[in-house]
């Protein structure tokens, strides 16, 4: 098991983002330096990622059947739209029709607000920087970071419990 999955994943500078250049996929730097950061994960997500990684022997987390990387357009058309809108054949029921992938960031921010996560921790988690004095003097301690992740874990347990009992 990679050490990153002991509760943290890391955005890396030189290979942290997938870019399509002249029709070819290449790993390169993310949009901003703030994307290069460790992110603490809740236990339910660590377990799911471990399970997924153990299901294949590719060096990347999410790959196609041939081991290739997903293009943004193909991922959306083949996986995201059917998962959110429901499949055209009706075998997969709609979950949140019209939801965009970026809406996950909005949802996460909203959950952090609901869980009273300090603004500095919200910004750090999302790869943002607070302006002015707030950004200079606000720091995120391990206790605050753990509280954020505990909130996500509790949210998962409340939501997933009825599903797991079926």
UniProtKB/TrEMBL annotation:
Source taxon at top rank: Bacteria
Gene Ontology terms describing biological process: DNA integration; DNA recombination
Segments traversing the membrane: none
Entries under SUPFAM superfamilies matching the protein: DNA breaking-rejoining enzymes (SSF56349)
InterPro entries reported in the protein's UniProt record: DNA_brk_join_enz (IPR011010), Integrase-like_cat_sf (IPR013762), Integrase_catalytic (IPR002104)
The keyword Cytoplasm belongs to this UniProt entry's keyword annotation: no
Domain Tyr recombinase: from-to ranges: 49-141
A GO term, aspect molecular function: DNA binding
Keywords assigned: DNA recombination
Keyword Protein transport set for record: no
One Pfam family named in its UniProt record: Phage_integrase
Protein's UniProt name: Phage integrase family protein
